[in-house]
Structures are given as structure tokens and as C-alpha cells.
Amino acid sequence: MDSRGLRPDGTIAREGSLTRVAPTFRPVVEAARARIAATFGADRLHSAYLYGSVPRGTATPGVSDLDVLLVLREEPADSDRADVQAIENDLDAAFDQIDGAAIGLASAPDLLSERERYDGGFFVACLCTPLLGEDLAANLPRYRPTSLLARETNGDLHLLLPQWRERAGQIGTEAEHKTLGRRVGRRLVRTAFTLVMPRWGGWTSDLRRAAEITARYYPERSEQFRLAATTGLGSRADADVMRILLDDLGRWLVTEYEAVHGRKAPRA
User: Fold this and answer.
1) Largest CA-CA distance found in the chain, in angstroms, rounded
2) Does one domain contain both 233 and 182?
3) Where would I find the Polymerase nucleotidyl transferase domain in this sequence (predicted)?
4) Is the residue at 11 inside a domain?
5) Domain residues for 109?
6) Residues sharing a CB contact under 8 Å with residue 206, sequence separation 6 or more, in sequence order
7) Paired strand residues for 69
8) What is the pLDDT along the chain (268 residues), one digit of tens a residue?
């Protein structure tokens, strides 16, 4: 993998590996693996993956969360979501190394569908590290940093902004503000980065690096990109910060993204 996150053939390399998991996080990963296998079993679980800072080797003890994707053989049911919630709670209570566990659910047929090829499929093939089961990446294409990939991964920001504004008006605790701020900051940085990704010609999931790369193309927005990155990494997201991110940077990104890449097709 070169400095732009590419293989020698110019396609995006998978960014994580179990060998990059720091020693302090290995017990958490092993506990997650064992609990997932025992709870779901091979009849329900197709595969499981780590993603985020832990498999990239950049996680901070006590600050980073454990991100996991479970791919089931059939569409997730309410019982699956209840089982996931129990695993999340147990891991969070058992390990001080993580600031919570976040386990997502998807189905193998959906991720392999044409509809998800450049969104969920890309996520699994390039941003996820296999933990259990058969790796779906074997059935997915190699991806390049194209406008198509940009649109399909981040071309739906216009749908998220109203939801975030509504959520910001409802929450009250500091922990809730921090959680929403991290979600908003991360998504805005990644949307901003994929806006310029085809021009830059590579991939990174590092929020600070992504903000700096994007700032080269839009220097007048550089401070807002950096603010989104620090918020995405857990800095305090007060009302003024959220107003800047949602009502200024977010609105601008929607307009600029549509002009450059277009909008993601609506999902039925």
C-alpha cells in the first residue's frame, strides 16, 4: 500500500489488519470474537469484521470505541438487534480500554447486491478487517477513487442534515452531545474528503489527514474542516460548534457535492 492507500494497480487497498491491533486491545477483540461466535453461530452468522481505529492500529486506550460489523445470512431481525445490544453492553462493561462498542448488522445478500456494490460493498472490501467467517471481499470488485465511489458512499448528506438538526434539539446531556458531535464531525470530514478524492487520487480514513487534504482544494474552508475533524475525534460539540458544522459547512457541502458528483440515488 502506498502513501495514498493504493495497491500497485491503483485500486484502494484494505486499510486494516488484525496484525495492527495494539496489544492493549487484543483481549477486547478476542472477547468480541468469542461472544459473537457463541451468540450467533455459523447458521446465522456469515462473517464478522472489525473496522475503525482498532484494526488500523491508531486507537487510543480509554478513548476509542470498538467498531464491529456482523454480516448475517438473512436480513437482521429484532432478536438479532437485541443480541447485539447485549454484546455491546458486556464488552463496554468488561474493558476500560474502549469507550463503548458499536456493532452494526447487515446481510450478505444485501451487501453483495448491485445496489450496495459501491457503498456497503466498498465498506466491507476496503474498510473492514475480517474477524470471523468467509470474507465477502472475495466476491466484490477492486475499487478506485472515482466520482462514482464518492457519490455512492457520501452523496446522501442532504438526507442526514435535517435528522441531525432535529436530534441536536432534543438531546441534553454532555455524553449525548459528544456522541452526536462525533457522528456529525466524522461524516462531514469524510464527505468533504470524498468531494476531492478523485482529484487527489487516493483514500484515507484518518480524519486529520482527510481534513488537511481537502483544505488544499478549498483553503477558505480549512478551519471548518479541522473543526469537523477534532469534533469527530471527540472534542466538545457545543451549540456554536454544531451550528457551524450543520448550518454552514454541512449546507455548503451538500451544494458543492451535488455540483461535483451528484446525489446518491434514493434507496427504495
Assistant:
1) 53
2) yes
3) 47-88
4) no
5) 18-139
6) 58
7) 49, 104
8) 779 999 999 999 999 999 999 999 999 999 999 999 999 999 999 999 999 999 999 999 998 999 999 999 999 999 999 999 999 999 999 999 999 999 999 999 999 999 999 999 999 999 999 999 999 999 999 999 999 999 999 999 999 999 999 998 888 788 888 889 999 999 999 999 999 999 999 999 999 999 999 999 999 999 999 999 999 998 888 889 999 999 999 999 999 999 999 999 876 6
